Amino acid sequence: MDFRSAGAQSGPMENLAGSLAGEQFAPRSTYLNTASAGLLPARSVAALHEAAQSVAEGAPLDMFADVEAARAGYARLAQVPVERVAAGSSVATYVGLIATSLPSGAEVLTAEGDFASAVNPFHVRADLKVRTVPLERIAESVRPGTALVAVSAVQSADGRVADLAAIRSAAAAHGARTCIDVSQALGWLDFDAGQYDFTVDVAYKWLLSPRGVGFLTVPEDLGGLSPVFAGWVAGESPFDSCYGPVTEFARSARRFDESPSLLSFTAARHALDLVEEIGLPAIRAHDLALADRFRAGLDRIGREPVPAPGSAIVSVPGLGGLQPAFQEAGVSVSDRAGNLRAAFHLYNSAADVDRLLDLLAAA
User: Fold this and answer.
1) CB 3.0–4.6 Å: which of 57, 205, 254, 269 could bond 250 by disulfide?
2) Same domain, 250 and 161
3) Contact, 122 vs 167, CB < 8 A?
4) What percent of the chain has pLDDT over 70?
């Protein structure tokens, strides 16, 4: 079936795939699964190989410099000063850190069906009051006494985008802090982390990095967090903080650093540079054009996606069971909460969209 007339024109989409992005990626299949894990660019693979070889030869490169370069690159993408960025490995770790800072009895407002890492640490603390409402009702559900609103900017299961402006306004009106998980957002969604108290992120999805790279952003006043899992890297002078208790914590968000997975950060440094070089506006336009093309094609074949306008993630209810067959056919998508989930990113093209639509039309 010819889907070329469905949705946006293919020109801009092909232009991005054929430019710098096209030089960095060579997937062997139709890969539409960035919401699970992004592809590593060639420059990251080369840097990773060089760094691993240096370790094997007993002459390791300075990969701590890569951590700092990755932190700075992330700060630019997130639109915050680098002093507000902590480098770690996982969303759950940093959400847990935020959970430990809340007083007993504090109310945390979360969204139904949000990703476990973004909400479970609050449930683990039995003395917190965790209130859960539908995503669309988050803003209206903030009330006096709400201490923290914790929500993903984009829902993992189906791609719905939170009304972040409304959530931010409601939280400010009631004196609540905000914690936004941008793991499914930063890399394609226009997002300014400086407008929120805390943001958490893993970089192995839309930021094209290996697992083991994550980030936390905090307010200028550090948000009342205590560096409860701090090791030597959290010291103002890390290499002078190796023995005994840390006598002076970093005066920036670096006090919340985890001991870094150095090889992963070496690769991440170059992936973040690539995203920055291409530019988030260009990536956003490209990704959304592909997603719109897919939605239009679904309409032509009588399939109804989960309503998620303006999202690079498109999910089709009830079709998650098709994922194994599609994988065997060379098209990589996800089965999430019973949905067939497709995610469109800078290395995808209109031809990728049309191949998935062909499979769905024949299913």
Assistant:
1) 254
2) yes
3) no
4) 95
d(CA 159, CA 114): 11
Here the contacts of 7-11 (C-beta below 8 Å, separation 24 or greater) are 7/289, 7/292, 7/293, 7/294, 7/295, 7/296, 7/297, 7/353, 8/289, 8/290, 8/292, 8/293, 9/289, 10/293, 10/349, 10/350
Question: Does the residue 84 lie in any domain?
Answer: yes
Structure tokens at 151: 């929500």
In a domain, 4, yes or no: no
Strand 85-88, strand 214-217: pairing? antiparallel
Question: Token pair for residue 337?
Answer: 């909460």
Question: Which domain-ending residue is among 220, 250, 277?
Answer: 277
DSSP string, 61-74: --HHHHHHHHHHHH
Who's near 303: CB < 8 A, 6+ residues apart? 316, 319, 360
| Domain co-membership, 261 together with 210 | yes
Residue where a domain stops, chosen among 227, 252, 277: 277
CB atoms within 10 A of CB 65: 12
Task: Indicate the pairing of strand 177-181 with strand 198-202.
Answer: parallel
Per the structure, the complete domain to which residue 330 belongs is given by 11-41+279-362
pLDDT in tens, 228-258: 999 999 999 999 999 999 999 999 999 999 9
Q: How confident is the model at residue 22, as a pLDDT?
A: 82
